[in-house]
Specification:
A-D-PHexomutase_C; phosphomannomutase activity; Alpha-D-Glucose-1,6-Bisphosphate, Chain A, domain 3; about 450 residues; EC 5.4.2.10; 15 helices; alpha/beta; Phosphoglucosamine mutase
Length: about 450
């Protein structure tokens, strides 16, 4: 039974994610994980308490001690797992709509479960061969407060005080219990919006894509801030606007950090996901480093395999020196530090250090059962159309066509939603547009061709 996608288990409540699934997965995790203690936390979704309670019941049935961390962001759960437990579980659907929920599983060192571990856990879940604790082996649920300690750990790692003015948008998500306090402890002057927990996400959609947070650019100009930070529902993602109210492309944020890590190390390997752009390769190679691409949802696998000094995918950055998990709070702290140390506004830092490439991305709705076939058929057509322009084809997550002029096109099935992702990038807007329109049109056409027609 396939349960895990690119970022844990995720889906619509009652259709895929149910209390029964959570309890049974708790029994599987409790039977699979070594050690005694499992940390469990949740985001602010309306169904998260219900699912967390079911998860805890499953874990207790196997004889595990449960550390209940309550409502905290996913990065704080990963950090707390490394500090306090032998495994960790986060109840969250991250940036998905409020109808959804899900489960992420972490090892004792704070890494998300690797692909092989997820496969083994699925097999155990399906087999039902769970450990059943005797009545006198059932342990307790211990509430543990970790937010203050986590904020202190991030402050110690960043090691910087700032006087910059920051606009923070928490998406009514779990990041709201950490980010404003962390930023103020750094000395920043903070203005917060959508920073109260509400599982309906009334302020905006929880995914920090530009179209969902574009209003922050106007707000930034009106308020005169130095930086805008937006998070998603569980606060692993981070999006950024500069002091002029301009959205800083997610690949540019990755490139800023990749460049600095390689410069600090005098080389090294940077691991990024399959859907990241050429500006990252440009700055890393110029600084003497190397870029390796991995499938979506596997930056931790890449760090382990390639010994990476930095890893990222759009909106999600991993700082291995702090911990092998995605951590937006470390990212925001280091971004402020970068601005202060360079003594320049973010727009100037980007302009002086990151080359311009033009990227477009959009989703095509597609039933889950058709996604793989649509992507395969569309890739065949696209390969034929691009033909002698192709320099390399990567098939680690969908199909990415790297072209001879450093343009590229990616089509891949979403691992969390009934959609196909289409991405194209080029050195000019014209080149980007022609590639994107070609790929998007092919994918949309294949969806329509393969979708079953309704009887009249």
């Amino acid at each position: 039974m396939k349960l895990f996608g690119t970022a844990g288990i995720r889906g619509t409540l009652w259709e895929k994610v149910t209390p029964e699934l959570a309890m049974r997965m708790g029994m599987a995790i409790g039977s699979y994980a070594d050690g005694e203690a499992v940390a469990v936390a949740r985001d602010g979704r309306t169904s998260s308490v219900m699912l967390q309670s079911a998860m805890i019941s499953g874990l207790l049935s196997t004889g595990k001690e449960v550390l209940d961390l309550g409502l905290i962001p996913t990065p704080a759960l990963a950090w707390a797992t490394r500090k306090h437990a032998d495994a960790g579980v986060m109840i969250t659907a991250s940036h998905n709509p409020p109808t959804d929920n899900g489960i992420k599983v972490f090892n004792g060192d704070g890494t998300e479960f690797y692909v092989e571990q997820e496969r083994e856990l699925e097999e155990l879940y399906s087999s039902g061969s769970f450990r059943k604790a005797n009545w006198d082996e059932i342990k307790s649920v211990k509430p543990v407060e970790v937010i203050d300690d986590y904020i202190g750990a991030v402050l110690d790692f960043v090691n910087h005080e700032t006087g910059l003015k920051v606009l923070y948008d928490g998406a009514n998500g779990a990041g709201s219990v950490v980010a404003p306090y962390l930023l103020r402890e750094m000395g920043a002057r903070v203005i917060s919006v959508n920073a109260h927990i509400d599982g309906h996400f009334p302020g905006r959609k929880p995914e920090p894509r530009y179209e969902n947070i574009a209003y922050l650019g106007q707000l930034a100009r009106v308020l005169g801030v130095d930086l805008v930070i937006a998070q998603d529902g569980d606060a692993d993602r981070i999006a950024v606007f500069d002091e002029k109210g301009n959205y800083v492309d997610e690949d540019t944020v990755i490139a800023l950090f990749a460049k600095r890590y390689v410069e600090e190390h005098g080389g090294g390997t940077v691991v990024v996901s399959i859907d990241t752009g050429s500006r990252i390769d440009h700055v890393v190679e110029e600084a003497g480093g190397k870029v390796v691409r991995v499938p979506l949802g596997q930056p931790h696998d890449g760090i382990k395999k390639y010994g990476a000094i930095f890893a990222a995918e759009p909106w999600k950055l991993v700082h291995p020196r702090f911990g092998p998990w995605i951590d937006s709070f470390v990212t925001m702290g280091l971004l402020l530090k970068m601005m202060d140390e360079e003594g320049k506004p973010l727009s100037q830092i980007v302009e002086e250090s990151i080359p311009t490439y033009y990227l477009a991305k959009e989703n095509v709705k597609c039933p889950d059962g058709l996604k793989e076939e649509v992507v395969r058929k569309a890739a065949e057509v696209l390969r034929e159309k691009l033909n002698d322009q192709i320099a390399e084809v990567l098939t680690i997550s969908g199909y990415r066509f790297n072209l001879k002029d450093r343009s590229w096109v990616l089509i891949r099935p979403s691992g969390t939603e009934p959609k196909i992702r289409v991405v194209a990038e080029g050195p000019t807007e014209k080149r980007r547009d022609e590639l994107f329109e070609l790929a998007y049109g092919i994918v949309k056409g294949e969806v329509e061709r393969l979708k079953p027609t309704s009887p009249v």
